[in-house]
């Protein structure tokens, strides 16, 4: 199970990198790397919470901040890095709280990540 999860995370990371490279010529101000790094650090630190409730709150905070970044930079060439972090955060939240709303949100961000591969079609 752990090997499968690692392989899945590697696949998502490769997908994010390839999408970032392929859309590098898009116009729009890029998301600052320090903000992406801060989100990644906060997501990693959320695993060290003392209780499940604190972990959930920390992950939800990362998701809120990531959504704000995407809202501020909707056409940034590196927005897929932020979307990849949001996908990982949604995975963590779903593992902590298996609710239908978390499942729907995880599927939604997954669809957003795959949409450019399909050419923007539904």
Query: How many strands appear in the DSSP assignment?
Result: 0
- Report how far apart the termini are: 31 Å
Mean pLDDT: 83
- Cα-atom radius of gyration: 14 Å
DSSP helix fraction: over 70%
Number of domains: 1
Order of helices and strands: HHHHH
The shape is globular
Q: Which residues form runs of ≥5 with pLDDT under 50?
A: none
Structural class: mainly alpha
Number of helices: 5
Outline the biggest β-sheet: none
Q: What fraction of residues sit in β-strands?
A: under 5%
Tell me what you see in this structure:
- The structure is a single chain.
- Helix content is 73%, strand content 0%.
- It is mostly helical.
- The chain has one domain (2-118).
Outline of the structure:
By secondary structure, this protein is an all-alpha fold.
Can you lay out the helices and strands and say which pair or pack?
Layout: H1 2-22, H2 33-46, H3 52-72, H4 79-96, H5 100-114
Question: What are the salient characteristics of this protein?
Answer:
122 residues; mainly alpha
């Amino acid at each position: 199970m752990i090997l499968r999860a690692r392989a899945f995370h590697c696949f998502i990371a490769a997908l994010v990198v390839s999408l970032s490279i392929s859309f590098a010529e898009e116009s729009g101000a890029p998301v600052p790397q320090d903000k992406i790094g801060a989100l990644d650090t906060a997501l990693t630190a959320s695993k060290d919470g003392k209780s499940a409730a604190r972990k959930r709150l920390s992950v939800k905070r990362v998701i809120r901040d990531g959504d704000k970044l995407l809202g501020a930079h909707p056409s940034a060439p590196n927005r897929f890095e932020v979307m990849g972090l949001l996908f990982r955060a949604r995975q963590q939240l779903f593992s902590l709280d298996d609710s239908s709303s978390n499942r729907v949100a995880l599927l939604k961000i997954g669809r957003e990540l795959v949409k450019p591969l399909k050419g923007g079609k539904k």
